[in-house]
Amino acid sequence: MPVVRMLRQVACWMLQSRACGCRASVLPSRLLGTSSRQIPTDANFHSTSFSEADQQRVLITGGLGQLGVGLASFLRKRFGKDNVILSDIRKPSEHVFLSGPFIYSDILDYKNLREIVVNNRITWLFHYSALLSAVGEANVSLARAVNITGLHNVLDVAAEHGLRLFVPSTIGAFGPTSPRNPTPDLCIQRPRTIYGVSKVHAELMGEYYYYQYGLDFRCLRYSGIISADSQPGGGTTDYAVQIFHEAVKSGRFECNLKPDTRLPMMYIDDCLRATLEVMEAPAESLSMRTYNISAMSFTLAELAQEVLKHIPELQVTYNVDPVRQAIADSWPMNFDDSNARKDWGWKHDFDLPELVTTMLNFHGSESRVAQAN
Ligand SMILES: NC(=O)c1ccc[n+]([C@@H]2O[C@H](COP(=O)([O-])OP(=O)(O)OC[C@H]3O[C@@H](n4cnc5c(N)ncnc54)[C@H](O)[C@@H]3O)[C@@H](O)[C@H]2O)c1
Ligand SMILES: C[C@@H](O)[C@H](N)C(=O)O
After folding, report:
1. Which residue's CA is minimally distant from atom 12 of ligand 1?
2. 263 burial level (CB within 10 Å; 0-12, 13-18, 19+)
3. DSSP assignment letter at 157
4. Rg of the Cα trace of the chain?
5. Cβ of 321: how many Cβ atoms within 10 Å?
6. Residue 190 CB: number of other CB atoms within 10 A?
């Protein structure tokens, strides 16, 4: 880059950072490659020119889990099939492999991550890799590596290449000393799972990179997400997906939490739309970098009651798993998402009755197809 242009960018960045109150700072040393110079950072330093800005090039990490395939298909409608790259360390199904670009990416491999971002001219990164609450407790050292070390790699690559970065947080980022009904955006966060601790760390690190290095970090705290065509990956809220599969398949469901357990939940379509909306929200509309988002909140008994309206023969039994129950009992019962609604117009579409009808319609048609075959 010619020296004059670089100096102009640096001066421009310093003016901008003063205007937004951010502190002038330097990138962490590994972001500077082999150079020993310390260059003031600018989130747009390496990014695309203005005319290219509408044509995002997207990377999704951990994309073969419950949410990533749906996110890819949603974003491909917006940005075009070839501009959204799904990645994971697992082998994709043939259907996923044929539906758009897929690439192997282990978020613990920093150089490989950087290579993917550079070679594909990525502008937006959705960081979905994680070990969820229940599997995280069963494998704390792996959860620590994936959820914390992996996040550090993603933050550094995103800051270095001027990406807009989305990292989902969760209701699990709160703990027993947080207000539970409702839980506001800003309150005590002392979660008791490695998953929750890693998500609070992600929220704080993302905000730190935003203030220190100008990284365009955006984060939503998702509720338990309920999806029809993908399986949950080992969380405490998995029962709210599994009940639909079992209701249609066997007419029986054994639940691992108590019937009066109340948690915030959301249908996947609302979750994915919220994710794109916050990523597209003008920077000046965001008064925070991390927002609660919510749609509904129900107990297991209320969920079962709603499903019974459609499948009266369903038998629900309870066999409580103490680990999952302790986690659920420490999480919010209701989520206060008024800031998201006020700042960038968040509004959910699905409440419990629509959710149940949609899920059962999907599974009903699936099982009819299976029977016909
Ligand atoms: N599903 C929910 O209810 C929910 C709720 C709140 C927040 N979230 C967050 O949303 C994100 C996606 O959730 P999900 O339900 O799809 O999770 P999931 O567990 O279903 O999928 C996570 C994916 O990460 C991948 N992964 C693991 N280690 C990896 C590594 N080293 N490198 C690359 N990928 C790796 C796994 O192979 C898996 O496909 C997570 O960050 C999760 O914390 C999910
Ligand atoms: C709530 C969420 O983060 C995830 N579904 C879990 O239960 O771990």
Report:
1. 128
2. buried
3. H
4. 21
5. 15
6. 13
The residue to which tokens 């994936």 are assigned: 146
- Asked if 267 is an active-site residue, the reply is no
Atom of ligand 2 nearest to the CA of 170: 3
Residue 8: HSE in the Cβ half-sphere, 13 Å Cα cutoff: 5
Cα separation of 329 and 326, whole Å?
5
ipTM, two decimals: 0.99
Collect all residues with Cβ–Cβ distance below 8 Å to 61 and sequence separation of at least 6. 87, 88, 105, 107, 113, 125, 126, 127, 128, 129, 150, 154
The residue contributing the CA closest to ligand 1 atom 20 is 65
Distance CA 210, CA 264 (A): 28
> Residue 336 to residues 40, 169, 270, 288, 342: CA-CA distances in angstroms?
38, 15, 16, 14, 12
| Count of residues in the chain | 373
Q: Which residue has the higher pLDDT, 370 or 156?
A: 156
Selected catalytic residue, list 104, 128, 195, 209? 195
Q: Which CATH superfamily is domain 130-371 in?
A: NAD(P)-binding Rossmann-like Domain (3.40.50.720)
Give tens-digit pLDDT for 204-216.
999 999 999 999 9
Nearest Cα residue to atom 29 of ligand 1: 129
Ligand 2 atom 8, closest CA = 235
Structure tokens at 242: 């599994």
pTM for this predicted structure: 0.90
Q: For 160-219, what is each residue's pLDDT tens digit?
A: 999 999 999 999 999 999 999 999 999 999 999 999 999 999 999 999 999 999 999 999
Q: Which ligand is nearest to the CA of 332?
A: 2
Is residue 102 left, alpha or beta, with left meaning phi > 0 and alpha meaning psi from -120 to 50? beta
| Beta-ladder partners of 255 | 318
What tens digit of pLDDT does each residue of 87-127 get? 999 999 999 999 999 999 999 999 999 999 999 999 999 99
Pocket of ligand 2 (CB under 6 A): 132-133, 170-172, 195, 224, 235-237
Q: Let me know: does 189 contact 173? Beta carbons within 8 Å.
A: yes
Closest CA to 295 of 352, 234, 235: 352
Is 148 a pocket residue for ligand 1 (Cβ < 6 Å)? no
Closest ligand 1 atom, residue 147 Cα: 41
